[in-house]
């Protein structure tokens, strides 16, 4: 038995094979056998092998009758090997003379199943020397010895130990282990990624691994054969993808058949590593014109998320390279080409590790691109001749503009520094004075640090209107708008070209000088406006007047004229040419410094501390009036001021990318307002106390007015659950412009928020929606896991509605359901308080805008619920009744539910014995009637929440006469206050009363909706 078997795979390598064989036969160590397997070469490789075997009896020549690929060629060689140890040598590589001698000596000391040696890399076919050095350094990197399961983990487990390569041609194996491994491998043809597959199986079956990287007698020719870097086309690349996939399938089959510990993770590690290598070929070996087709083919083989991830990896790396090397953006750069292709193959994702891995890479790539864009924006902004600084202390939307530049201000910058803004604490500054000086800290910073021809100043809420259109103003002289969006940019010309055009040729631009006899309650004069301000001290206005007259006596006449006049511009907004701005600052700040030095503000309120900022607004007017009086000759312009009420940055949710088991996530959505905080807290607590600790609950609360304090209290309270993430999403912007009203006074605007879920959580394919007037006794993960198939949602039938269908006297609910709703089977009508939403299918079928339009239909009784029943009929999975057990509201079990079909009513009654979710639907709630049906279950949870006292107050208010408590702490109703029902019906039949319910039934009868 020879000590070492050398297995040579040869296919069409006649050019290199003689040198390969000569390097083997010249080994200083002779106890070897040389098994050369010719894989049906079409050149003279076979003849070379046979001739060599005739010359050296150690050479065993084997010829395949037909080409079988590298894996099966090696398999043939392993089956024939008789040596104690064996290694693979490719037919186009060579060995140093003492290579086998070094291996023999080392293996005698280590006795390892695997001896991992180094290589010497020689570049062929125009491979650059630096590429060779990098490849050699990677493969010769030091590795540690390992035993048993750690051997395979070091190579394939991304979360464990070393990152060891999987090259089987760089290892000496114990032959009996090698035979066992190849015997366990597939007998199917494998190519390209066969090294990874073979190394996977061999490592899994080995007991010991020893590193011998200092031995580098294997001479590897980089650039020959399939490892080359020659250009390929898209069709060839797709073939490569399929070859890799065949190796993945074979690996997975081995994992499953051998029940390998941690096999799934190891398999995933292999596929990730291999796809990265394959994707590198996509980047380097394909022409740009071929890359789209190749990526589409790759996505068909490996899936869109895996493919898009690799493309975003290239985007990330290129963006990072440009960032760190200060490379300017070129829109023709390959980075944008890669991003476009990635976007073209992206599909709606699912909650899988592959999706999250892709999202992590995409987010990082976009983060770097955003930083790169910001870096370029800063460069452009630095050279802008016009700079208008927008003061802000919070994250806000801003028009896309190089002229308009956000400046973060305030003493808290260091704790929460916005990365994409300027900062008033850089350079020479008075940032610490922001509580007193307000936006003046931006002006001071710009004066001392910025370079421009024009210096302008706005606020994050207030901008100039650069359009020529006259917009309606409020009584305070402001144009009011809501969001800073594309429409606002268009309406007020908040773009660089328009701003430049509006300013060109002027020395000073301000807001309009308004007549104080007609605005601000007609107070009349600036002095009177100051006196009317409750937080400002009258003496302070007089004090700055005295300081001004002392430092600049020639301004006294202008100060008197302004303070006793009736015109003023407001908001400390202006744009000035550089010389004027510098003169103004040199005049203004010494005045304020003297005021601050000589004024005791230690007992001032927070608003009164802002007095220097308020004074500067007056001083600006005096400064402008003075220069007008003395004939400075400045050309001035007045623009309207636009006040945005909702400038805050648009919120969007991101997937929980830091959670390593995305398949265990349960996304849950509630809708609530500030008055309903105690209720949604109770509901959520009941859910979490019954939740599976091995699942992770991503909870989103859709709202538009929950106070920051209540959000903070809820977040603190629920921090006790480590398997939960609580997020608040303001949806006001998303529902703006829709007429979400109804004739049903029990329906609040929050009920429509469920139609937003598919767009707010685009990264989930399935989402659980729950009303906030429920308690949960079961694990909602079980509910979420229900298979929806192709159906749009899962829900329970509505026992109340079905009962109404069968009420005979005066009942037209059946006609309403068939004629208005158009339901083919009225008895399939479901309750919408507990829903498992197939958001992927819903997105494909309806847009959010369509849902909201449907919900605005005035013909519907229960707009949200009716809409879902109309547009989802035939696509509903019906839940076990226990998942939505509606309580007995005012005797409806006997008076309404009992009219439902017999089997349905029996199922409902049975569900009451063990409800998983109790739904307090209707006008009777535990907080209005603490003795109602199932109230004791509700209060079991409610007593534990930090808002318990608020619920008790609600109970106490329930004993107040109805008329007095009519509008106390209710959801915002979708039924407007000006509605006839509000003005006439409410006083006669208050909300929640039996008289109201009776009148409602009469109204429905008249309208044909019973």
From TrEMBL:
This is Glycosyltransferase family 8. CDD domains: Glyco_tranf_GTA_type, GT8_A4GalT_like. InterPro entries: DUF4422, Glyco_trans_2-like, Glyco_trans_8, Glycosyltrans_8_dom-fam, Nucleotide-diphossugar_trans. Residues 387-627 form the DUF4422 domain. The keyword Transferase applies. One of its GO terms (molecular function) is metal ion binding. Residues 5-129 form the Glycosyltransferase 2-like domain.
